[in-house]
Amino acid sequence: MASDFSLAGHIVRRARLAGSSVLENGNPFFAPLDRLQAEAKRDGGPFTSFANYDYLGISDHAAIRDAAHQALDRVGVGALGSRLVGGERLIHGTFEKALAEFVGSESALTLVSGYLTNLTTISHLLGKRDLIIYDELSHNSIMAGVGSCKATSVEFRHNDMEHLRHVLSEQRANHRNCLIVVESLYSMDGDIANLPEILKLKDEFQSWLLVDEAHSIGVLGKTGRGICEHFGEDPSRIDLIIGTLSKTFVSCGGFICAQKPVLEWMRFLLPGFVYSVGLPPVIAAAAGAALQVIKDEPQRVGKLRDNAVRFLTKAKEAGLSTGPAEGYAIVPIHFPDMKTTMMASDHLLKNGIYAPPIVQVGVPKGLPRIRFFISARHSFEEIDRTVETLRSFSASLSKSPAPELA
Ligand code: PMP
For residues 266 and 231, is the Cβ–Cβ distance under 8 A? Predict the structure, then answer.
């Protein structure tokens, strides 16, 4: 723990040394978004954020605000209890039914956090005699679930189907049940899981499959229904589809889509559901309204895709390093080291573009980057200006390399 604190101090010191002047104390982390927006407005400059999950650009949609206001007036803010014993509200069931229908699953269950959803589901589904195989670039919430699970756990190389097959061939026969865990759209690299191949392997090795669709609902597929719509696969072939309400649904919370009996079991036995409060009704109402907006305004999904492809194409043309990103809502730009990443982020902010650095802790030490969350809200002009700002920053670096920092 102590070393974590000193690492945090080290990162902030480096950011300050990198010359951050726009942010308070030169610290690029925890900058209040509303303050940055207000300051840009006051100074009459442009302001574009690529730091937020609002993929379809609906966070200020009137229908979502209205739904939240009405729920607030009707039932108040909180659920006031575990849903099992007092916290159940009509809006929970209504929203879960609509969510399951949208995703194409038999049933859905919501929890108070996306992180908690992965943690509690993965850690409680399997026992000592079981096996869990997960992609090495899985989100921390998946890792936390794997870490507290009693099953044998083995990681496979990122998106490497040959390696997944190898691990299954070596390990599957020695265990009772097997769960394969992947994300659909990877949150730090912006590439997509090879679902058709994973489904084949899952069937061949009689395993279960959990797919974390945190970043792909509203993003993948023509109407934003996620990775199954993208590949033309049947969602019922995935045993557990996990999602979050904090991204496309612009609110907060997590959900599990699965067959009814599985979720009936979870309603009584999943610790993160049973021993935690139900989703606040205000949030459930807002997320429900967001779902309706996604269904009513599918053109937003197309606009997001156009924007993401434009960002990626322009970035590649500018010679920037985008790693394996495929042009779906998340595009990272890699820099050679932490200090250059910090300087690039600061340079963007000085030009009215907010995209914080992602350095060690969030990603491996040698792979710092700035992650751009693309939104349907962005204009081509904003995207082009952002890529141009990055290009000119990189060009200035090659002329005079970044000064060495302590
Ligand atoms: N899964 C993935 C892949 C994520 O990226 C995140 C958070 N960014 C979560 C789960 C957790 O979701 P939440 O922030 O809604 O708790």
Answer: no
Could you tell me the strand order of the sheet in which 357-358 lies?
330-334, 369-373, 357-358
- Tell me if 215 sits within 8 A of 247, measured CB to CB: yes
Report the first-to-last Cα separation within the chain, whole angstroms.
Answer: 24
Q: Is 354 touching ligand 1 by the criterion CB < 6 Å?
A: no
Token digits of residue 201: 């392997």
Region of 260 please: left (phi>0), alpha (psi -120 to 50) or beta.
alpha
> Is the CB of 187 within 6 Å of ligand 1?
yes
Tell me, using a 6 A CB cutoff, whether residue 135 lines ligand 1: no
* DSSP-assigned letter for residue 79: -
Rounded to the nearest angstrom, the distance between the alpha carbon of 241 and the centre of ligand 1 is 13
Question: What span, in angstroms and rounded, lies between the C-alpha atoms of 228 and 197?
Answer: 13
Which residues are CB-contacts of 174 (< 8 A; sequence separation ≥ 6)? 131
Return the pLDDT at 406.
38
Residue 17 has pLDDT above 80, yes or no: no
For the whole model, what pTM was predicted? 0.94
What are the φ and ψ backbone dihedral angles of 24, each rounded to 5 degrees?
-60, 125
For residue 404 the two structure tokens come to: 């060495």
Ligand 1 proximity of 114 Cβ (cutoff 6 Å): yes
Number of the ligand 1 atom closest to the C-alpha atom of 253: 15
Mean of the per-residue pLDDT values of the chain: 93
392 Cβ contact partners less than 8 Å away, ≥ 6 residues apart: none
Q: Hey, what domains does the chain have and what are their CATH numbers?
A: 14-45+298-399 (3.90.1150.10), 62-296 (3.40.640.10)
ipTM: 0.99
CA 159–ligand 1 middle distance (angstroms): 19
Give the bridge partners for 185, in sequence order: 192
Q: Give CA angle at 225 (194, 300), nearest 5°.
A: 115
Coarse DSSP helix, strand, coil percentages of the chain, rounded to the nearest 5 percent: 50, 15, 40
What residues have CB less than 8 Å from 329, skipping those under 6 apart?
Answer: 55, 185, 190, 215, 219, 304, 308, 373, 374, 375
Mean pLDDT, range 178-201, rounded to an integer: 97
Mean pLDDT of 122-144: 97
244 in contact with ligand 1, CB cutoff 6 A:
yes
**CA–CA separation, 369 and 342 (whole Å):** 9
Distance of CA 187 to the CA centre of its chain: 5
CA 224/CA 247 separation, integer angstroms: 13
Pairing of strands 357-358, 369-373: antiparallel
